[in-house]
Write a structure and sequence with these properties.
eight-stranded mixed β-sheet, alpha/beta, about 450 residues
Amino acid sequence: MLGEYRIEGRRAADIAASVERAVGSGELEPGQTLPPMRELAEELGVNANTVAAAYRTLRERGVIETAGRRGSRVRPKPATTGRDHLRVDVPEGVRDVADGNPDPALLPALAEAFAAAARQSDRHPVQYGEDAVEPELGRLARSGLDADGVPAGPVVVTSGSLDAIERVLMAHLKPGDAVAVEDPGWGSLLDLAPALGLRTVGVGVDDEGPLPDDVRRALTAGARALIVTDRAQNPTGAAITAPRARALRSVLGEHPETLLIEDDHGHRIVDLPLYSLAGVTHSWAFVRSVAKAYGPDLRLAVLTGDPVTVDRVHGRQRLGPGWVSRLLQKAVVHLWTSGTVDAGAVAASYGRRRDALIGALKARGVEAHGRSGMNVWIPVPDETGAVARLLHAGWAVAPGARFRMGSPPGVRITVSTLRSEDIEPLADAVASAVGPAPARRYV
């Protein structure tokens, strides 16, 4: 059942940690069955209730799942290891179009921004007890949100989008609650929810965003929260349109107790308008990060929402890290106000590459999607085979399994570093690896 690995421990916490270590190291693999509780308790010389408590902890952390009489087993995609274990190793000489990173050439230089922030901090050092949000950053962020039609609400700063989403989920939900998420969707989010002990319910996606009927089914079945990506959806590039926003707002109006979380991580790299869903439900949060436009190492996102949600997030943050460095916030203000990033030019650059690749694939009879952002999603009949064949042809693409729960197979290509001369060879390689296919929805 467990091969050579022996679970150890006398306390529930130690038993759970022993299993987590084995899953993280690969000694226990996805799908592997754990011993029945009474059997393991006898082997360890502990009470069966101790093992039951350990297994409960592992379920809440998203490491194992229990299927009635079939017992407990390691989850197919355990939170302990995350989806990064699905990443393709890129051999020397192979082009990496799998990493999901922005184009370094489109990112601004940071030296002057941090130098300016440091000079300002030297004149007025931040002390304990001061505001957690740099006043000018809060003002600029709120002004941008107002311009895009995001409802009024207080602003807090978090360490990136995923940090914000985690804090909002923890502020409202408890282990065992269900969360509706996009499928295919952001792999890190699909790992985060089960790690918090939450159940994920997949919602289909097309080029215009989440499918309203799928959202309605998930919420009617009891999902307490819905997480959507407004633009530059990862991995499909979907962007919510005005008609889709109206349809989704109508569905949310039928379920006003739903916690709505919107992720607008594509801000300043997308030239499509924002159609926010916020304001229909009692509890909502809207998140914007700076990573895609200004650099992944700038771990900063702006979060707004209803006053109760924002107050809960801010209160818990105050008891933990306290605040996101005001020095970092000052640097972001400098980047925002110095004009170092031309959002229109950045969006156009990514758009040219996406459109060129999608057009070249279409000419070869291959379906592909990518309305916005820096990724193109390609449905495939055989995901493993397509990835392997493309790797052999000199291209490393991201396996769709990193982004899927129940949706059909696919691969993701990040266009950030593609040059015009790359488009035709890459399209040829994809067509050879995938083959022409009839149009099929990727949900």
